[in-house]
From TrEMBL:
It comes from Alkalibacterium pelagium. The chain holds residues 475 to 751 of 759 of the full protein. This is Diguanylate cyclase (GGDEF) domain-containing protein. It comes from the Bacteria. Residues 23-275 form the EAL domain. Signal peptide: none annotated.
Length: 277
């Protein structure tokens, strides 16, 4: 007799079980993970495309799970947002980024701003401002070295986010719109918000060899310029992209061409040189 094998339903069922159990492990692990020091920040330089000088950094969250190993933030951030854990995790990220930045300053390394990613859920929570104030006070970090990156989704709830943004502006904390062009963006709104920078998503940069995509990127850069916003290109991987960006008057980039996000020690080594390549 032939081996029966698994029918489509059993196979589907097994896969679904696997997905659900992974999701449960992640969900249950978020709280412990924070307590038990499983999270860390990696840093990726922001680079002046012309001089190749490091002009800032983005802090990116990493989770080393005891059973699942490294889990991408693309997978666990949405879970943390759904379950509410993002508030505690996001607070930890802000605190850790400020502490590390201040540590580098004390060590005599160049004073460079650090950008942290902030979920729209943190904006809606109502405690973001007071938390940031407390952390700045406790760490001795000056507000002008802290930047926040938020996605376009904050524009959906403008009545809630606008006052927070204005308070942040008053505190001299700068705001970047992350993944600009991928989501919900209203030019009418963005023009009224106290935003400093737009970050072009890496998916656009990756396709710049295509003439129509290049034209699109150019138009986003021109738009940023006309709104008096700084424009940062994310996901820069090739010299050809650098040249095209400079031709389009975009001066700041981030990407594997310069460096991947790296742990604290490796970033510190990079800062000692400040010049990349
Ligand atoms: P993002 O904020 O758009 O960050 C850029 C992502 O692109 C990072 O992925 C970075 O490692 C990656 N990247 C940088 N340069 C290149 C490149 O040249 N090529 C390619 N292919 N990728 C590049 P990562 O670190 O996996 O983070 C993914 C997303 O997770 C972030 O996207 C952000 O939305 C979210 N995230 C990361 N850390 C945090 C955090 O602390 N809080 C919140 N709320 N979200 C975070
Ligand atoms: Ca970001
Ligand atoms: Ca992005
Ligand atoms: Ca993002």
């Amino acid at each position: 007799a032939k081996d029966k094998g698994k029918n489509g339903f059993e196979f589907f069922n097994e896969q679904l079980n696997q997905i659900m159990s992974r999701r449960m492990t992640i969900e249950n692990g978020l709280q412990n993970g924070l307590r038990e020091g499983q999270f860390s920040l990696h840093y990726q330089p922001k680079v002046d495309l012309k001089t190749r000088q490091i002009i800032g950094m983005e802090a990116l969250l990493r989770w080393n799970h005891p059973e699942l190993g490294e889990i991408s933030p693309v997978e666990f951030i949405p879970v943390a947002e759904e379950t509410g854990h993002i508030i505690a995790i996001g607070e930890w990220v802000i605190r850790e980024a400020c502490r590390q930045n201040k540590r580098w300053q004390r060590k005599g390394l160049p004073f460079l701003p650090v950008a942290v990613n902030v979920s729209v859920k943190q904006f809606q929570n109502g405690k973001l401002l007071s938390y940031i104030k407390r952390v700045l006070h406790e760490t001795g970090m000056e507000s002008r070295y802290l930047e926040l990156e938020v996605t376009e989704s904050i524009m959906q709830d403008i009545h809630q986010s606008s006052p927070v943004l204005h308070d942040l502006r008053e505190m001299k904390i700068s705001i970047s719109i992350d993944d600009f062009g991928t989501g919900y963006s209203s030019l009418h709104i963005i023009q009224k918000l106290p935003v400093d920078t737009i970050k072009l998503d890496k998916s656009f940069i990756a396709e710049m060899e295509e003439p129509s995509q290049l034209a699109f990127v150019k138009s986003l850069i021109a738009l940023g310029e006309s709104l008096d916003l700084a424009v940062v290109a994310e996901g820069v991987e090739t010299e050809s992209q650098v040249n095209k960006l400079l031709d389009s008057r975009c001066r700041i980039g981030q990407g594997y061409l310069f460096s991947r996000p790296v742990p604290v020690d490796a970033f510190e080594e990079m800062m000692k040189d400040t010049l990349i390549n």
